[in-house]
Design a protein that fits this description.
The chain has 165 residues and is α+β, with helices and mostly antiparallel strands. It has one domain: Hotdog Thioesterase (Thiol Ester Dehydrase, Chain A, Roll). The chain is built from three helices and six strands, in the order αβαβββββα. Strands 1, 2, 3, 4, 5 and 6 form a six-stranded antiparallel beta sheet that branches. The chain is globular.
């Protein structure tokens, strides 16, 4: 039997990012959040969560960046225009040049998990536009966060289709 995703209650105690209502402009012809916006909102939530690990939004100005390498997306419950949503982030692991994360979009209006994005993201040296080892301070901060997140009282469900190399 496959494990289930964490519950809304388990996720709601984690720090919230990109808290906002679903805007009318993001609605599709089905009357809910268009598929392309789930990934964008989750990505923004991941970006916000990484600020505390020493990865500011303007990191490219200092010669560094994070680029996405892989995603696995799971849609669980629709978000409709006006529904309040937020993102929660769990860091799973880090390699010399990459990190693995899960981003959960919560439907705050209906208190349920709506969407899960699993991502591998890379540290990039913007001078060469190639992967590079994480700066030592960022690596240490990521490791601390990964250890903290490993202490959560529930097991993460991953796709099995990606891993750190």
């Amino acid at each position: 039997m496959r494990a289930s995703h964490p519950t809304y209650q388990q996720l709601a105690v984690m720090p919230a990012y990109v808290e906002q209502p679903v805007p009318v402009a993001f609605e599709d012809v089905n009357g809910h959040l268009n598929v392309r916006h789930y990934t964008g909102i989750a990505s923004e939530g991941l970006d916000e969560s990484l600020v505390d690990q020493g990865i500011p939004q303007n990191w490219p100005a200092s010669g560094h960046a994070c680029f996405s390498a892989e995603h696995h997306l799971t849609y669980l419950a629709e978000l409709r225009t006006g529904d309040r949503m937020s993102a929660r982030v769990r860091l799973l692991g880090r390699a010399e040049r990459a990190a693995h994360a899960l981003v959960y979009l919560l439907d705050e209006s209906h208190q349920r998990l709506s969407f899960v994005m699993e991502e591998i993201f890379l540290h990039i040296d913007m001078g060469t536009r190639r992967t590079a080892p994480w700066p030592e301070d960022v690596a240490a901060a990521l490791d601390r966060r990964i250890a903290e997140d490993a202490g959560l009282p529930w097991e993460p469900v991953v796709s099995g289709s990606m891993s750190l190399r």
